[in-house]
Amino acid sequence: MTTKGRLVREVDQYIAKLPENIQTITETLRKIIIETSTELVEEYKWAMPNYSYKGLVCYLQSSKKHVNLGFHRGNELQEIDTNELLQGTGKSMRHIRITNIEDIQLEVIKGFILEAIRLNEA
């Protein structure tokens, strides 16, 4: 699956400014998100990468020590969160905190993304 033309320059610039280990995690998550669905649109808003399809789906929020893969309707994903990865107590948003590249659970993350897209289609 090609990502050509689907990645925005502002996100490239955002990632370039991150510490090296956080860059690697952020790039890996970005690739997973984009490759999980050709429907997702990458945008740079609220000072971070956001991905949408029929509404907001997920975002990447990087800090010096970790990356949060957040879901705008994360509270609705908790029933499929058998590994209890989702964190947060807000009204709707939840996130997965990733501190090491080894923490990325590819199939679990893809499942969350696909379910978040399905929620927006409903």
TrEMBL record:
Top-level taxon of origin: Bacteria
Domain YdhG-like, first and last residues per copy: 24-117
The name this protein goes by in its record: YdhG-like domain-containing protein
UniProt source species: Ureibacillus manganicus DSM 26584
Species lineage: Bacteria, Bacillati, Bacillota, Bacilli, Bacillales
